[in-house]
Amino acid sequence: MFLQIFKFELWYRLRRPATYIYFGILLLLALLLMLTSGGFFKGLSVSVGSKVFVNSPFSLNGYTTVLTLIPGVLLISAMFGPAILRDFETRMHPLLFTTPISRLGYLGGRFTGTLVITMLVLSGIAVGLFIGTLIPGMPAERIGPQRLMGYLNPYLTLVLPNVVLMGAIFFALGTLTRKALATYVGSIVFLVLYFVAQGQLSDLDNQTIGSLLDPMGSGASRQLTKYWTTAEKNTQLVPLTGLLLGNRLVWLGVGLALLGFCFWRFRFTQSAAEGPVRRRAERPGLDVVPTTASVVLPRVHQQFGTSQYLRQWARLTKLEFLDIIRSPYFIAIVVAGLAFLLVAALQIGKIFDTRTFPVTAQVAIILSGSFSLFSLAIITFYAGELVWRERDAHLNQIYDALPLPNWVPLASKLAALLLVPVVLQVIVLVCGLLTQIFSGYYQFELGLYIKYLFGLRLLDYWLLVVLAIAVHVLVNHKYLGHFVMLLYYMFTLFASQIGLEHNLAIYGSDPGVQYSALNKFGHFIGPFLWFKLYWAGLALVLAVGANLLWVRGTETSANVRQKLAASRFTGPARLAMGAGLLTFLVVGGFIYYNTNVLNRYQGSKTQEKQTVEFERKYSRLGRRPQPRITAVEVQADLFPSRQEVRLRGQYWLRNKTGQPIDSVQLNLPQEARIRLLTLGAAGAAPARTVLSDSLLGFYVQRLPQPLAPGDSLPLRFDLYYAAPGFENVTNRTSVVYNGTFINSQLLPNIGYNPNAEISDEETRKDYNLPPKPRMASLTDTAARRNTYISHDSDWVRFAATVSTEPDQLALAPGYLKKEWAENGRRYFRYEMDAPILNFYSFQSARYAVRKAKWNDIDIAIYYQPGHEYNLDRMVRGVQDGLTYFTKNFGPYQHRQVRIVEFPGYQTFAQSFPNTIPYSENIGFIAKIDSADPEDVDYPYYVTAHEVAHQWWAHQVIGANVQGSTMMSETLSQYAALMVMKQLYGEARMRKFLKHEMDRYLTGRATEQSKEQPLYKVENQQYIHYRKGSVAMYALQDYVGEDKVNQALAAYIKEVKFQQPPYTTSPDLLRHLRQVTPDSLQYLVTDMFERITLYENRVDSVSYKKLPGGKYRVTLNLNSKKFYADSLGNERPAPMNDWIDIAVLIERKVNGKWRDEPLYRRKTRLKAGNNKLEIIVAEKPVKAGIDPFNELIDRDPDDNVKNLPRS
Amino acid sequence: MALVIENLSKTYSNGVQALRDVNLTIPTGMFGLLGPNGAGKSSLMRTIATLQEANSGSIRLDELDVLREKDGVRRILGYLPQEFGVYPKVTAEDLLDHFAVLKGLADSKERKATVAALLHKTNLYEVRKKNLGGYSGGMKQRFGIAQALLGNPRLIIVDEPTAGLDPAERNRFHNLLSEIGENIIVILSTHIVSDVSDLCRNMAIINKGQVLLTGDPLVVMNELQGQVWRRAIAKEQLPALQQEQQVISSRLYAGQTIVHVVSDGSPGVEYESVTPSLEDVYFARIAEAERGMAVVA
Question: Is DNA-binding one of the keywords UniProt gives this record (chain A) (predicted)?
Fold first, then answer.
């Protein structure tokens, strides 16, 4: 019986065109994905290089997983939902159920038959991916050797179990509810839940649970491969082990359990509700009704006319609206959404797993972001339901013959669906308020909620509502309509990848809005609204079009609809459509004038091409000798409310070369309007401009007389940065209404800057540019003449006058010498008393100021009122930093430290001489529980790090070669860690270091080019910050903090404020090695000069109680060390290394249990198995190797084991 | 008042010709449109009910051009389509009230009274608070006529209203229809002959998109007087008989096959003359038309 049904199912499905259509869709999508990833379309978009082959097992695994999800889940639901359901829908079931088939045979046969066919359908992915790799035109270097298992493995480990699970879900839904809608909604809910869940499980400590809970297993396989290097990705199959195996077993079990449940509940009955126990609701009595005497119908009065139509419209709107929000599917999706809002609320603003205060802007943005997928799903789904409502209920003939004007039905549906996102936004608002209340945060900004949720986001939903309705009317096929909407969503996601970046071309899009506590919505609102008005025009056209094409009556053929539309296209319709079209065109024209005429519109591809052109044209000039800047005097006039700035002043340029210089190259940002740019003093014979390329911002001036070696001459400039109209993407975030932050990059540069060249290897190849190392090698003596932040100056004298609007404070590095008002503006004069790097900033906002002192040094924090939360921590960070650094590194060169807040359009803090611009997002609103050992006090840490830069960057600056950021970033990181350790103790550092280790390991896994050892770091953040933290922390633990500081102090003394050639990392290593004992020299080599990885684990531990109350702990350990090359190929390294061996006990500290070492000693271990015995005084709880993860180890969880409780 | 259909033709986009040059004049009172399944009845009804376009021809209701002035037609129309559904979770009273609003019954008091009267009239008053999902086929059909009667329509179209009803329900439905005023036009399309003979003073027989006959049922039956003959035969004899005689119908009765035959004079001694029923007229006309077509073909 089973076999027959199974065979019939195969036969039936193989004859269905849908099977082949699904296969074809997957094949095409897979092909497209392969082509896009492989760079087939790079002529259209910006290319991104990578050394991971597109057909590597890792890549194939990823692509297959993605496509199994979208559109896979929808197809799987389309396959499994109807497996049994179709018998009910075709009313075949009475015929079937009266035959002697068994439940097992019927359900089992159908399920397995469908399973086999679905796997066949899904094999389209592998076929498409494979064909993709064969297409000529795919860059050969992206394609590795073909391996059958690479294609098959994801099917065995991921796809098959997923199909069983999802198949079981949809099969059971369809079979038990006997409703197609249930399977359909099920698939949407599944997808939305899945995506939202993906975003939520980012907490480092939850990842194990998170990856087990992920029903598709992709979280687990990501967890398994997250530290994989390029080499591993290219060669290894994702193994079915560990978490992935666990995950697969769990979910396969769930799938089978569901099938079991389905089998148990299923009965061969006529209708779904009929069960053995439940009785059917009785029909209202029918035959008791006698035929009555005739009733005379009262005469009634019918009203026709606009007022009645409006009443009808209002009534229908209300009805449709209530129908939606009362429907169980709506409630189900909203409840699911609420569950995720709850999770999202817990994650607000997490940095280092440490939360921020739930300020309204964050809560509103994060919650509405988490909820938006649910909103999209609801809008898309109900657009289809509304358009088809009458027809689905078979009431359409009655409705269509009613004396309603044509516009009423569509307009009421549109209005009802427009109301739905209003409800959804109210839900988000209430959740936001609840989140704040439960966090004990009561500064509700209701106005901000309303502005953001109802002023901004709602407009997007409304545009979407109109589009969805119009699509459904136009397509006139419910499922095809949904498919078209899905295509639209995919289009908006991928438009930029096919080179379509102009917001005039992507329905509903806008130049972007960012909120900042300083600048509020600032200058983003105007352009945003213009674009929305433009799209509203189109939406009106769409709505009128939909009304014209609205199906009324029983004929749906295209020409009948067209004919009807023509007859409906009368006065009001023409007027509305004309108004819409006019708005669309006029506003579109106005926008175009702003984005493309007033502003220069460049797609990212154009920008890339310009960079290439710049290199081609001018790199040959790079070797000509150029003078260097020695003094800067600048007046910065800021016009925040106009977003404009005027920069004028004078450089002194000095010929530091040994030969005369006859011409000077000047390099300026393209947008600068040059009012004056002249070499030579006023009144002297001016230099002659011999090259002027305003498009690329490159100018060459020939001097009337060559500049002799050692001589200087002034460069006078007057530049204006205007802000005409608005841009396609609102990028002008530096000069803003409140919170201006600009830096020296807006001022002229001298000479050709090779750092501006394209560095990506693949892209260079595409443009036939000669290969270029990402950074110059350590031995490049020419490159050592420059620091890594400037190619045209060494140390400069600096003074600046900054003017701004009268209610703002303006700042620049230096000491305030004078402040005055003039012409209704406020002026500030800053002068620096010692030479600085040619690197400075100007800031202006309506600041409040917190002042403090450390010895004679003034500390000031310029902040946004309301952001007082962590000022004390920051002040403390400055004070503790100054204490530690002056004591251990050397004196501070300034008399002042200022922290200046700027809007969160960027998230960083940056150290300029005695001035630290500090993003509002990186600590001002952090909510730190000092007692919680899991919280990282990052305002304190970031502050300490930035203060440390006053030594490590502003005193010691590396040459423009590999390894240079080690001296600034790694050492600042080390300095901050030491300050933090002093305040919080060693135990509290572990969480932070765990993060740093994780970010190093994930960083190297996504390296696009080459991983470098620390001393050759090429400005790679995951190396100079993350690995730097880990390596330096370990070093000070092995060698001693004092020793390390002693080395650093000696180093700083040797090289601070040095002139070219600049210092390089071997200098630093030399000092570190001097303080390192011979037995640990290998450690310096391993951590700084090599890429070293350990695989430490404890195999077994036990203990015995000894007479005398002591305990003997026996450990069986395994230790391995590997050296990796730049792509991650590893080779085992011999070892005789010192590694921490520890026995731990749990102690209660501040009310929380914490691991404390009973015994901890560095012990020499050889590679392989090691057996150790340790005597301890108390009863031990855990024991292991390198328990605090000082050494780089991808699997730190197996380093420590609990002792058996014997 | 009369509905005048002239030269109405309709071909669907899939090539099916549903109406061929239909000419009909429908006076006030109950008008029966009789025809087998697929004859084009529903196409004609839907065209009159503004749900469908015609390729050519015209329909006029006095001064009203039905094909163009759809809004005008809809204001006086009551329409019960052949197949319709309901919102299962809404009560009869609520849905009827809803339709009343959409039919322009603005005054809520008046609307309430009409809805109550209609529910009484259709014997649904007792169950007005029940969800429509629980209604039987007959109740649903009565609800259908109730909504069609909303707003004192002057043109009522009921398409196959009795199909699938049990005899009691059908009877009840006939009573309902018969109470609709005499001075409005009611078009009843059906394939059940007795629906027409019971209710209609005027009728048309339609098959394959063509009108085969129009007239008063009594008159058309009279026209066949003396031409219809009946005989009982064994089942095996039927094919042979069909060759010899114009057999218009055959049905089983008590194990025997009773055939009706049309003939000007007595076809034989085994035959007895019968008074023609409307059914005989119907079958005779359809058989005639089929033969005519066969000859033409």
Answer: no
Half-sphere exposure of A134 (CA within 13 A, CB side): 7
Of A433, A767, A400, the closest CA to residue A619 belongs to A767
| pLDDT at residue A203, rounded to an integer | 57
> Contact, A1018 vs A59, CB < 8 A?
no
pLDDT at A603 over 80: no
Residue A171 sits at the vertex; the CA angle it makes with A165 and A174, to the nearest 5 degrees, is 140
- Closest of A1175, A1169, A1155, A1068 to residue A1113, by C-alpha: A1175
Q: Could you tell me which residues are beta bridge partners of residue A700?
A: A665, A691
- What pTM, to 2 d.p., does this model score? 0.86
| In A997-1073, beta strands by DSSP E | none
My answer on whether B25 and B135 are in the same domain is yes
Dihedral sign, Cα of residue A527, residue A528, residue A532, residue A535: positive
- Domain termination residue (choose one: B163, B189, B215): B215
The residues pairing with B19 across neighbouring beta strands, listed in sequence order, are B10
Q: Examine the fold and report which residue of B167, B182, B215 is the final residue of a domain before the chain moves on.
A: B215
Task: State how far Cα B7 lies from the chain centre.
Answer: 20
Residue of A nearest to B107 (CA): A301
Residues of B in contact with A301 (CB under 8 A): 105-107, 110
**Looking at the 3D structure of chain B, how many domains does it have?**
2
Largest pairwise CA distance in chain B: 69
Q: State the Cα–Cα distance between residues A756 and A778, nearest whole angstrom.
A: 20
- Structural element, H or E, at residue A969: none
Q: Pick the residue of B10, B43, B67, B70 with the most A CBs within 10 A to test the interface with A by mutation.
A: B70
Closest Cα in chain A, distance from residue B80 (Å): 7
Task: Please report the ipTM that was assigned to this predicted complex.
Answer: 0.91
Q: Is there a single domain that holds both residue B147 and residue B234?
A: no
Nearest CB to B117 within list A297, A404, A557: A297
Are residues B84 and A395, on separate chains, in Cβ contact within 8 Å? Answer: yes
Whether A291 and chain B come into contact, CB under 8 Å, resolves to yes
Could you tell me if B241 and B173 lie in one domain? Answer: no
DSSP letter (8 states) at residue A1120: E
The residue among B227, B207, B226, B214 whose CA lies nearest residue B292 is B207
A315 reaches B (C-beta below 8 A):
yes
Can you read off the two tokens belonging to residue A20?
Answer: 């082949």
Q: Which of residues 259-288 of A touch B (CB under 8 A)?
A: 281, 283-287
User: Chain A residue with minimal CA distance to B123?
Assistant: A289
Confidence of residue A277 (pLDDT cuts 50, 70, 90): very low
Q: For the segment B210-252, what is each residue's pLDDT rounded down to a tens digit?
A: 998 898 888 888 888 888 898 888 888 888 888 888 888 888 8
Clarify whether residues B147 and B262 are in a common domain.
Answer: no
* Contact of A427 with B78, CB cutoff 8 Å: no
Among A883, A1088, A1081, smallest CA distance to A971 is for A1088
Are B57 and B199 within one domain?
yes
- Give the CATH number, domain containing residue B37: 3.40.50.300
Please, are residues A817 and A829 in contact by the beta-carbon 8 Å criterion?
Answer: yes
The CATH fold of domain A614-631+641-754: Immunoglobulin-like (2.60.40)
Beta strand residue intervals within A915-1068, DSSP E: 915-919
Beta bridge partners of A1121: A1094
Q: B10 vs chain A: nearest CA distance in angstroms? A: 12
**pLDDT on residue A450:** 96
Dist. CA A526–CA A86, nearest whole Å: 53
| CB contact (8 A) between residue A302 and residue B110 | no
Contact between residue B92 and residue B132 where contact means Cβ atoms under 8 Å apart: yes
Across the A:B interface, residue pairs with CB atoms under 8 Å apart total 144
CATH number for A1091-1206 (one of 2.60.40, 1.20.120, 3.30.1360, 1.10.10): it is: 2.60.40
